[in-house]
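Quick log. Single chain, no ligands specified.
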Amino acid sequence: MAYVIGVDVGGTFTDAVLDDGNGSIVAAKTPSTPPDYSQGVMDVIVQLAENLGEPVEVMLGKTHHIAHGTTSSLNALVMGNVPDVGFLTTVGHRDSIYIMNVEGRYLGSAPHELQNVMGQTKTHLIPKSQAFEITERVDHAGNVVIELDEQSVRNSVEDVLGQDIRSIAVSLLWSFRNPVHELRVRDIIHEIDPDVFVALSHEVSPRIREFSRSSTTIMSAQIGPGLRDYLGELESRLADAGLRGPLLVMQSNGGAIAAAEAPATAISTIGSVLTGGVVGAVNLGQQLGHKNIISTDVGGTTFLVGLVVDGEPVRTSQTIINHHPINVPTLEVHAIGSGGGAIAWIDRGGNLQVGPRSAQSVPGPACYGAGGVEPTNTDANLVLGILPETGLVGGRKKLDVEASREAIRSHIAEPLGLSVEDAAAAIYAIQNAQTGDLLRKTVVEAGHDPRDFVLYAFGGAGPAYCAGYAAEVDIREVVVPLGPVASGFSAFGLAASDVILAQELSDPGQMPVSPSATQKHFEDLEKRLSEALDRQGLSFKEILYVREMDLRYTAQLAEVSVTVPSGGLTEADMVDAMNEFERKYASLYGEGTGFSAAGIQSITLRVQATGVLPFDPHMPELEKASDSDPRDAQVATRRVCLDAQIGFVETPIYDYRKLRADHVIAGPAVIEVPTTTVVVPPKMSGTVDRLGNLHIITRD
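-> predicted structure:
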């Protein structure tokens, strides 16, 4: 069979995983290369070919497709590093993006931020000088009330282009009910200048609620040109290197889309690199028989948490960035700036903090010797003996322990009156505590008991901390997905992903709505999806459609998605949808919180299409050990501190490559993998399973 490659571009490292279709997996890791992340992709492809033992052109010539996840779009939005965008909307409605539906001061804020009323501010996506009104009107039923004034469109476009703006977002009132005017506006823009990037709200976010639809469209226009240029350059470089298959881009919904299609709905890719690990967890969970999984990824910059419940990843229909709503179906992933490169610092109150600021790959932690002088989690781990002084990435990334000691001494130890070792231990403890806090927020506040879940830990730094942050919330079993994927597990998830596309349409109505009208809407959405799947340039093993309705109690804002059956719909199906809504509402918000007497409304219809690819990456099986004692895999001992109260202890060091299935490692122990390091604390043990994963549990 052909190869499938997953490439995960993080802020610090770029990972790649290749599945050969015959039960073998090869992985590679190289530093990311901001601002030109495409160079890091090419670097990791070269390293992957070396690890595979084939020339790059031969490897790429055998590759069916590459699935790519990137943080560049998300980082651009979060940091505000986006180009100027013009905005065209219906006359009388320009200020909706500045009024922000009175949500702009609190959307996405933590409880303590909400309490600070005087400190709340609004951040606008674009200045008013870049927003223009055009004369037209479509009513709520999709009827054209006022014809489009094409001259007003031309005048506004000329004003936008006169500001040297090359991207325009168009969001007209009720365009999701009738897009005729938005389509004509795009034609006019391209008549004036065919190279201008245009985002239309009915294509990007065909949902009711003007502010969120417009904000989603504007943000898509902000990142669309950059994504288009980046993917175009990367596709060209990969083709020159020998790739004949397509380049796919991971989306927030956990599925991929062809690179050529992605810029049109660029906003759908903002969580692409965050969801790869969750998709990988679903895949591995099917192999291990785990249905409830907490997916945790500690990379160089962030700590990410996602949930899998009853075998399905938890999804949401909206996310928030910088107080602006984004209407994109996405896997729900929580993140904080607490990765291996998170910088330790002392606040004004004299308290030790870790993150959210990161050293990233440039200049990197102090121990990298690339100009970084501030202490990071990586520096603390090196001082504590958790990381080997021989270096990371199989020794290719040399580490300078004296540079780490000096960074911790000058920035943390001396100001706090601690030894360097005690300061490093404090950094390690704070990292575990704050990552444990995010676990608690993600799992417990969603109404789940952590003891009902298995925690999967991956990423370059995740295995070093997982036992500690799992203990913070009383999780009983931790699985470190090792095998050949090691820290590149998110890239494994990308390689395991299928093509997933979604189409939605708002059509508010009182339940039970007409089953025939609803059926017609679903059929129209499925037809669009079928055409979009045809454009992906791939052959699918099968195509699966899932229908959803977003319902709410009348006059409430909280919407809950419920699935409805395929095929012809009946009145009974509408009643079943209402009953399922009430059950899910009660499970989310508590028994007795619903109010059936208010009635139930249908707001948005959605169809998700999955093009199942003829690939199913599986971890290869390990040779079974003759007994449980891993003595032959122990390569050294060194002084390691895993607990400040215990101090440094002479600790056995194991080479993961020498471990076999059924080996049991009693803590304290450190397991070195070419791309990560696993910590097994005292009173815990790790058992290697048939796929090479390490299961860490508390010993009786």
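Residues 210-241 form the longest helix (32 residues).
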